[in-house]
Amino acid sequence: MKLHRWLACIVISFAFLTPSLGYAQSNYPNRPIRLIIPFTPGGVTDTSGRFIAEQLSLKLGQQVIADNKPGASGNIGTQMVATAEPDGYTLLLGYAGTLAINPTLSDKIPFDSVKDFAPIGKIGDAILILVANNDFAGKGLADVIEISKKNPNGLSYGTSGAGGTPHIAGELFKQKSGANLVHIPYKGGGQALLDLLGGNIPLVYTAVAGANQYVSSGRIKAIAVSSAKRSPGMPDVPTFIEGGVKDFVIDDWVGLLAPAKTPKPIIMKLNQALNEILNSTEGKARLFAMGITPTPGTPEKFGEQIKGDLIRFTPIVKAANVRSE
């Protein structure tokens, strides 16, 4: 008899619990949401994240607070979301370098890019560009390859830092073309561009958003973009593929993720709101101005890209012997 009473209590408990969980999800969000941006303010990752937070606030009727938590190449802020409560109130502004490259650089990464997160959707692709200072003798990729091979010390190219997407893109360019390039890491793409403008380095691999103003004013030369198609903001600049480097497509991407085990209804509500932003006239215009091509899609599609990029970048990193401790 006691057993029957115990089972009855269990059934009644679940009967009360299940509706409350369902109500919490259908009532989501009923308080502010925190969007962790794992980098310092000012870069394209930060500006795109703040725009999405602003727009999500309007769509969801609750404030989405952009919260910068930089450190360890994005690993600190990313880990914070990996270990957060999976209730939809702590989200991550995910970045290709952190989620798809950092895990290939070290065995000590404090999160699993696949197991610890629930993808919401990709925001877009930030197009990368190879630029040269105006004293550089070459004009196109063929010139870069030829000049680098003639220089016994190689040709230097700067990026925002070791292990970032521009660095890995530069290493892939070397592997595919045989160019004799030497990587020079900076503490940010802005510093690399300043050295390029000063004539202290011949080449820089960076985001279109950072280089556009200098290219359009004629202060530096655009060599090629590494996207599949030409940048809408720089339609006269050829792609690496057009320059003769086969199957060369690497973009920086940004996207939204939640902790693993976040309820599916919450993920889908956030995905719908994100896609509405990305498909809107204002969303497209604002992101294009940042050098980002919006990519509305499903959580599943974004998750597959993360998995695919982890597989794709691993052999490139190993061949280049790039490590991070």
Summarize the structure.
This protein is α/β, with parallel strands linked by helices and 325 residues long. The protein contains eleven helices and eleven strands.
Topology, element by element:
Elements: H1 2-26, E1 33-37, H2 44-60, E2 64-68, H3 75-82, E3 90-95, H4 96-105, E4 117-126, E5 128-133, H5 141-150, E6 155-159, H6 165-177, E7 181-185, H7 189-197, E8 203-207, H8 208-216, E9 220-225, E10 252-259, H9 264-279, H10 281-289, E11 292-294, H11 299-320
Parallel strand pairs: 1-2, 1-3, 6-7, 6-8
Antiparallel strand pairs: 3-10, 4-10, 4-11, 5-8, 5-9
Helix pairs in contact: 2-9, 4-11, 6-11
Key phrases:
single chain, 325 residues, 6-stranded mixed sheet, 11 helices
Give a written overview of the molecule.
The protein is α/β, with parallel strands linked by helices and 325 residues long. 46% of the residues lie in helices and 20% in strands. It has helices at 2-26, 44-60, 75-82, 96-105, 141-150, 165-177, 189-197, 208-216, 264-279, 281-289, 299-320, and strands spanning 33-37, 64-68, 90-95, 117-126, 128-133, 155-159, 181-185, 203-207, 220-225, 252-259, 292-294. Strands 2-1-3-10-4-11 form a six-stranded mixed β-sheet, with helices on both faces. The longest helix is centred in the first third of the chain and has 25 residues, at 2-26.
